[in-house]
Amino acid sequence: MNPLNNRTPLRPEAQARRTPPPPPPLAATPAPPPAPAPSAPPPAQQRPVETPVSTIEQMVRDAHSASASDIHIRVGQVPRFRIRGVMQVATTHPKVTPEIFEQYLAEILTPEQRKQFATTKELDSAIFYPGFVRCRLNCFDSLSGGAMVLRLISLEIPTIDSLRLPEVFKSIILRSQGLILVTGPTGSGKSTTVAAMIDHLNQMEQKHVVTIEDPIEFIHPSKKCLVSQREVGLHTHEFQQALRAVLREDPDVILIGEMRDRVTINTALQAAQTGHLVLGTLHTRSAINAINRLLNLYPPEEQQAMRIQICDTLVAVIAQLLLPTVDNRRVAVHDILVNTPAMHDYLMKGADDEAFRLMEHDTYEGMQIINQGLYKLVLEGRVTIEEAAKTSPEASDLDRRLRTGGYDVGDARGFEGSKKERIVRA
After folding, report:
1. How far apart, in whole angstroms, are the C-alpha atoms of residue 81 and residue 87?
2. Which element (helix H / strand E) includes 154?
3. CB 76 within 8 A of CB 101
4. Burial level of 187, CB count in 10 A (0-12/13-18/19+)?
5. Per-residue DSSP letter, 170
6. If DSSP codes are grouped into helix, strand and coil, which group holds residue 64?
7. pLDDT in tens, 320-356
8. Distance (Å, rounded) from C-alpha 13 to C-alpha 224?
9. What is the C-alpha separation between 50 and 183, in angstroms, rounded?
10. For a 10 Å CB count at each end of the chain, is N or C smaller?
11. What is the rounded distance in angstroms from the CA atom of residue 342 to the CA atom of residue 323?
12. What b-and-e string marks burial along 272-295, b requiring 16 or more CB atoms within 10 Å of the CB?
């Protein structure tokens, strides 16, 4: 064995010296920083809950859809609608705050009207929504704050026939001169009845009709008649000023609205005595009481002279009341006084009882009393006995009429209209 091929084993120390040192460890590459986690969206800001603010126009549309006649708005209250004579809360509209009420005023009033309301604390005006409806507006101040009432008025003028008014109204409005009084409590439909009579005249005669209204309610287009409508505050500054000027405007027919004072009555009588037909309104529930109401505006020493003037110019008195029907509508019932020669004599004497009996029995001239109208409505099945009794000025007389007319009142106390059989004695 070649000794040169045999390596002498080295001692451990020498082995250590001859073994090269291991390479230094590589510097660790720093790990990339972790991707930042997507930041959570900032918490949504809590907005204060806002009270939904309605508008007058939307309220009017809602009221019209509900067949309401009036809208009542008052600070501190939810608006209310009058539907078939009953006040109902409009739950879809918020409670009115002072701020909301100011927004309502800004929506429907001009700056001048707002100044006037702030000064006088009350205001009469009107709102017109073209092609939809017209509203009579009254703004006033109250203990709880501002308030307003809107009366909805259809743009379509009703006719005497569509309202099923007595036929005598057609002949009354066609008279050439004199005084016609339409009376009834507030909200009894006086304006609607007068509008229907004016519309009939407008279709039948060629005349000049002048109206002085506060405010204008129904808008009458000129048909056969030339119709001139004037609104107090818009077309004239003062009612009395317009009343004095109307006789210089060549009218045939004059509508002066409410007979509110002696000046108005005197002007109306003067116009009626000089060849004009004059229509006026009062707030009495019966026809005969309308005459006494006019006389009571004068001192006792003047009443006899005024009685002569009124009786000589009077054409007719129509007293009107409204009551609900079985189909959830409302119908008018009338006290009708026509100034025939016999009636003229009774009125001149102040014989109210005799005049009342003449109204009851002289149906040929178209006269009637309230209970006769109620009796007819009950027999037609349009109103219930209970509603008729509440409306009647003398419920016992109505009861007697129903019994003697063959209507079994005792069996009909639960009567609910024409859909139920009415028991009538043979």
Report:
1. 6
2. strand 145-154
3. no
4. middle
5. H
6. helix
7. 999 999 988 899 999 999 999 999 999 999 999 999 9
8. 140
9. 47
10. C
11. 31
12. beeebbbbbbbebbbbbbbbeebb
